[in-house]
Amino acid sequence: QVQLVESGGGLVQAGGSLRLSCAASGRTFRTYAMGWFRQAPGKEREFVAVISASGGNTYYADSEKGRFTISRDNAKNTVYLQMNSLKPEDTAVYYCAAGDRPNWSRYEYDYWGQGTQVTVSS
User: In three state form, how does the secondary structure of 91-112 look?
Assistant: First the structure.
């Protein structure tokens, strides 16, 4: 069992930056791939980025490449999402999730956090 708690969301102007954190409970954190997803009002939850259990592999949605960076600290049981050059269309609730392997499909993740709101003003 893994419990996930996101933090770091907020209101930022377009072009600004935010760093999201996701703190995990349990000793098995280091065995899970960790993903970030987001969901805007009226839209489906979409993949943002994922990092392998070791941290050696990362994958991003095309729209986030070059702007977002996912990382993890297994000693702190935490995964991060650094978001730069934010756009109004990045506005959404951001969720972290734990799964057996890196995957862009939200159905492949077993554990989810409660989400943190990110709002980007124009």
Answer: CEEEEEEEECCCCCCHHHEEEE
pLDDT for res 65: 85
> Residue 1's pLDDT is what?
83
What is the rounded distance in angstroms from the CA atom of residue 61 to the CA atom of residue 70? 12
Residue 77 region by backbone torsions, left for phi larger than 0, else alpha for psi between -120 and 50, else beta: left
Cα separation, 83 vs 13, whole angstroms: 12
The CA-based angle 31-60-47, given to 5 degrees, is 80
Q: Which residues pair with 111 in a beta bridge?
A: 98
pLDDT band at 27 (very low <50, low <70, confident <90, very high): confident
For 49-72, give one letter per residue: b (16+ CB within 10 A) or e: bbbebebeeebbbeebeeebbbeb
For the chain, what is the mean pLDDT? 96
Mean pLDDT for 49-78 is: 95
